[in-house]
Amino acid sequence: MMDFLDELRAFARESADVLRRTTLDIDRDPSLVDGVLGGALPWRHVGMPAEYYPDPPVVQGRPVYLDSCVEQVTVLEELARADAGAVLALPGPAMSGFVVAEIADQRQRERYYGMLAERPTWTFFGMTEPSHGSDPAGMATNVTGGLLNGVKRFVGNGARARIGVVFARRSAGPLGIAAVLVETDRPGFAGVPLETLGLRALALSELRMRDVPVEVGDLLGHHRSATRQGMWAAVRTFNRYRPVVACLALGVAQAAFDYVVDNRRLMRVAQRHVLDGFAERLHGARALVLAAARSADDDPGDGTLASAAKIRATALAEEITTAAVRFFGPGARWEHPLLDKWLRDARAFEFMEGTSNIQRLNLAQGYLNGRLGHAQAA
Ligand SMILES: Cc1cc2nc3c(=O)[nH]c(=O)nc-3n(C[C@H](O)[C@H](O)[C@H](O)COP(=O)(O)OP(=O)(O)OC[C@H]3O[C@@H](n4cnc5c(N)ncnc54)[C@H](O)[C@@H]3O)c2cc1C
Q: Measured from the CA of 132, which atom of ligand 1 is nearest?
């Protein structure tokens, strides 16, 4: 019998065809996502808990909720080979779901997952700010006296979301950052789409919050100890989501590689060598992404391998999409619009979830803390 992950991958590959049909249209007009992606894929609720997802796809007789990092990197890489932007634009829990799963109380879970189960619903994860980036030390968004104020920028799906998590300062220091669960129809809340070049389907947005009313029941993890609330959940979310970003970068890299193999039949020997080298590195990066996903499932507190996978996959995506264009001569970006799209998309992964320099710092820290033993075992 075929290995479960192999069969899951094959099933995902087949289901990705639907994304290929719309990829260039959505790239031109990201607002089309709202109509196209709602029910187009069997993966309607990536990461929804079983009790809110009555009809998940079934592989080898097993329901697939995509609630583990290993399942996510397997399926989402295949979908990203068709359109990574559309994968990121799928309705469902995405990043904010990790925070909710980690620290929400029962009422908050019901509020969040209940809304998502009603109909295709987009969510957001609001951390980055215009003046301070994603560095929590400088975070200016604040929640005081029952009011949320601040601006978040580069937030995926922000303008089309109905609910999400805003990180905001309640008091000084790292323990003073709260994760606030907010519906976007509250007074004082506005989501505005930004113009971008890559991953346009994701509709990066700016969130503007002016005196948005919040209550204690909106603070995720308010029932837990101060050390197990906002930033704790954010770090674990990054550790879990970085292998996912890496798998998306890998999907784009593989798509560009396949395009060259399928469309450029006459090649010089040197060009074949280049492709052989890429094939090996794609294989190696895939193994690393899977190892990172396993590590994240085992211990979301350890992001060492997640950072390694993100560095490797991001660099490969940039390199292969750049090289792919060169295989087709000077007019390639006009004559091969998919190559042009992948070249633009690949640049976005460097910034998502922290740049490669930040990942290198994580990797060094993991090494100094003796965590690469775990990495080697994986
Ligand atoms: C496609 C996309 C989707 C995104 N989605 C979201 C989202 O949903 N929610 C959200 O909140 N944010 C999101 N972001 C924002 C993203 O998370 C941040 O832009 C990213 O984490 C980089 O952080 P920064 O902007 O603070 O840059 P910085 O970390 O400040 O980096 C700026 C530059 O300085 C370098 N640098 C920084 N610190 C060091 C150091 N210690 N040593 C050496 N070099 C350093 C970096 O390598 C980089 O070149 C998204 C971004 C993109 C591109």
A: 26
